[in-house]
Structure formats: C-alpha cells, structure tokens
Give the backbone structure.
Amino acid sequence: MGICNVTPDSFSDGGEHATVDAAKAHVDAMIAEGADVIDVGGESTRPGAAPVPAKEQLARVLEVVRYASMRSCVSIDTTLPEVAAACLDAGACVVNDVSCLKDDALAKVAAAHGAALVLMHARATQAEMRGFSAWPDDAYADVVADVLRDWEAAAARAVSAGMTRDALVMDPGLGFAKNARHSAELLRRTAEMVEALDVPVLIGASRKSFLAMADRDAGPRDRIGASIAAAIHAARAGAAMLRVHDVRATRQAVDLVHVMGGG
C-alpha cells in the first residue's frame, strides 16, 4: 500500500504531493514501483494535527482518488463518513480509518458501498497526541492483548453497522497513542496478532518516529533502512499488507527475501 498524502503538513512528506498534479504524478510513480493499493489522504495524522473539515479534505483528494482508481485499487484515508462516501462513489474500494471507528456511520458507508474497512487501533485523536512516541508506559498492561481487545470491540460495532467481518482489516496503529516501546513490541509480536485474528493484518511502520530507536538522530526521510527492516519482519510474520512511503525499495527487499525462501 503506497502512501499519497495530499496535505501540506504530513510528518514525512508534507507539501511534497499537496497539489493535484503532484499527487497524480506520485500515484503513477508508486504504481510503476509495484504498489498494489494507493492510500490517498487529505488530513495529516501527525501528533497535534488539527482536524480538516470534510469540504477541504474532498477538495484535496477527490480528483486524485478518481484518477488513481482508474489505475489501481484505492484506499481513502479518512475518519469522516461524508469524505468516505464521496471517494467510494469516485472509485475507491477501501476506507482506511485511523480512529478505530470513532464514528459508526463510517462503517455504514463502507458497508453500503461494499468496500473493505481498515480499522486502525487508536485511543486518541491526532490533536490529543502531544508528541511523536510520547505516551505513558503504563497506558497498556500488555500492549498486544489490549490492542486486540480494543480492536475487537470496534470490529463488533462495524459488523453491527452492516460490515461483514471478512471485509475488515486490522492495523495495530504503530505510533498512535503509543510510545516507541509500545510500537516496537507490537511490531515484534506481529505473528501473534496474525495468529489471533481471522482478518488480514496491515502494518504501517514506514518512517515512523519509533524507528529512531535504531538511530536516534534520524529524521523521517533517514529511516528508510529501519522502515524496510520493519517491513521484512512484518511480512515474514504474516502481515497481509504493508503501508509504505518507499514502494520500490520495500518491494525489492520483501520480494528478495521471498525468493530466497525467507518467508
């Protein structure tokens, strides 16, 4: 899953693909590099980011979604039912919800369109997250067990809203209301989550701040090596989807490990 942030303020590539033409070019490049899904978003999920109204999100993403959906499977990264509905009408086939279904209406929209729904675990909004990887150690007793329990509660609400369980995808939400140790533990125990669930697991570690535990001075664009290592680990552990910024490099690494019989 290749990331297309049509935003001026995303943590890793804010502004780089903020215009429609730049976003379209990025879509083409990621497809050429081997992306299977294009994840388009019009609202930053960096800590402290303010909510973006539906009208503004749609002004940013709708034309890009329409363009990308003629070339690839498209996911719309939003927590707003209005945005999801318009983008699904424009050709998207997946809703990527980083709120862990804060609004059950989002599941109703996805169900009505026959779309898949990615439920990413989170216990706080972006505005409530004060810093990268800044979260109390004692927020979780066992981070994997707690995340799975919270996710199952959201999944049950989604099914009650009309989703079929086989249309759900689980994302443990690395970096969302979690500190670096929480995120690293979730990544390390990816196989445990895969084993516990009957739905696909998506891992999004790309360029995130917890990866700096391997290189303290590395900024987002300097974490590509750690991002690829995380992707290889997740793939070998059974993750069905990898959400990444660096499509070609990640695809090369994962495919080579597969060819060499490493999973």
